[in-house]
Specification:
three-stranded antiparallel beta sheet
Amino acid sequence: MDISITTLALLVLTPLLVWRVYKRIQARMTRQRSIVSRHYTGVLVFGAMIAVPLVQLLDNPTNLAALLAGAALGTGWSVYALKRTRFEDTQQGYYFTPPARLGILFAMILVARILYLGVEVYANQGKGIPAPKLTDDTLTMLCVGLTAGYFEWYSAGLLQWRRRLRKAIDAE
């Protein structure tokens, strides 16, 4: 087997890339200020991550089922995560601390799958094999559904928490 310098560089740099992504995600899974616009953005972005492939998969029931099953599982885990989230109402503002391990796990599932697809595309380069679409693979759709379902529902839960606080303030 002939290994090119590009392949060798990718083999060396991939663990560094994974480590950097992991550390960035880990840094986001700490105590954070609750900003309503960010929660809405989370609902919209992760909702789109489900809706866009869903429309493309209407003629592919297996991958559609994987996407929906992943979204359902991610939603279930998100409900669990919201119960483990620490919510704070302080003089400085509203804060929450998500369960870091769950957030990191679901984010890294998608990162690992995308990295795998990148390696697959690189390995098939020059062989005349067309690059696969993201929606072509059942496991990829499961990973997308898991991650998007988890973070969409988590963002919705944060919005619900903020609405409850608002109603309590308005009732006073």
